[in-house]
From TrEMBL:
Gene3D superfamilies: Vaccinia Virus protein VP39. Its EC number is 2.1.1.44. This is Histidine-specific methyltransferase EgtD. The keyword Nucleus does not apply. InterPro entries: EgtD, EgtD_Methyltrsf_superfamily, MeTrfase_dom, MeTrfase_EgtD-like, SAM-dependent_MTases_sf. GO terms for biological process: methylation. The gene is egtD. It holds the Pfam family Methyltransf_33. It comes from Rosistilla oblonga. Residues 21-319 form the Histidine-specific methyltransferase SAM-dependent domain.
């Protein structure tokens, strides 16, 4: 189980290396090869993701932040005083600062993230800037479940799940995770979630295949990580980043495509690639406000309030269990 204390970090690294290897070998053995997108976020991947968020063409971060700024008062009222915030996939906690600044006397912040060093460094900076807030980082893959610290088990929790990270999951898995969240925040707390909305294909493609190649680098970094951490020999320059929009499923799909026929070794295992063969690395599902509310209803969550931007690119939604 993922460690929650920094002094357990060595054990965590070992445990997650074995799991990483297992997931990579299993994913590359399928007829449609795939790699789980959660492995994007090593130290370099987390930094590249922060760079993506700054790109002109990557509208989600800027749009969501705009919604949070424009509706700060209403969102603050909705969460109420003395909030205990649990953030799923907190990354650099940039949007969280905007939220914390508009909450009345928030009690605790529990950021949950898979990227340990990045999480702990972010938590230290937050502690310096919010001395009255109890900050309790948890290193975990939130899809695998984690324990809320005992001090807050009986509090009214608000789960904060920004960034449209929920879009990585296929609808059934999204419902399952939302059900876990519904149990976690029970009848007193709530869920504040960011959801990317379906829109013109070209806007989506520009966001997921930027001209500067940052997204390509982010995607390809997964192969560098496998080389480094799992003793792989991917010739990274023989793969390219591909983003497509699957209209039937309303999702962006991201792949790593092999330039040529080649064989790759990972430890003792070997994988062959045909020319043009793709490894699926990420789905990013797009919703509309009503389709997402329907999905959440299947998880026992009912929508209280919805905030959007003028272009309807993104929604921030509050739900109760
Ligand atoms: C972090 C999952 C929200 O789907 O937009 C950005 C990840 N991948 N560019 C997204 C991502 C490529 C991002 N999420």
């Amino acid at each position: 189980f993922p460690a929650t204390q920094p002094h357990c970090s060595t054990a965590t690294a070992d445990a997650s290396d074995a799991e990483f290897l297992q997931d990579v070998l299993a994913g590359l053995s399928k007829s449609q090869k795939h790699l789980p997108c959660k492995y994007f976020y090593d130290e370099r991947g987390s930094k590249l993701f922060d760079q993506i968020c700054e790109l002109d063409s990557y509208y989600p971060t800027r749009t969501e932040t705009g919604i949070m700024v424009d509706n700060a008062e209403a969102i603050g009222r909705r969460l109420g005083p003395e909030a205990v915030l649990v953030e799923y996939g907190s990354g650099s906690s940039t949007k969280t600062r905007q939220l914390l600044d508009h909450l009345q006397n928030p009690t605790a912040y529990i950021p949950v993230d898979i990227s340990e060093d990045h999480l702990l460094a972010t938590a230290e900076r937050l502690k310096a800037d919010y001395p009255d807030l109890d900050i309790h980082p948890i290193v975990a893959d939130f899809t695998q479940g984690f324990e809320i610290p005992t001090a807050y088990r009986n509090s009214q929790l608000t789960v904060y799940f920004p960034g449209s990270t929920i879009g990585n999951l296929e609808p059934d898995a999204a419902i399952e995770l939302l059900r876990t969240i519904a149990r976690q925040c029970d009848s007193h707390g709530g869920l504040l979630i960011g959801v990317d909305l379906d829109k013109a294909e070209q806007v989506l493609l520009d966001a997921y295949d930027d001209d500067l190649g940052v997204t390509a680098e982010f995607n390809l970094n997964l192969l560098h990580r496998i080389n480094r951490q799992l003793n792989g020999n991917f010739a990274v320059d023989k793969f390219r980043h591909v983003a497509i929009y699957n209209a039937a499923k309303a999702r962006i799909e991201i792949y790593l495509e092999s330039h040529c026929a080649q064989t790759v070794a990972i430890g003792d295992a070997q994988f062959t690639f045909a020319e043009g063969e793709r490894i699926l690395t990420e789905y990013s599902h797009k919703y509309d406000v009503s389709s997402f509310a329907d999905l959440a209803r299947h998880a026992g969550l009912s929508v209280d309030e919805v905030w959007t931007d003028p272009r309807d690119y993104f929604a921030v939604m509050h739900f109760s269990a």
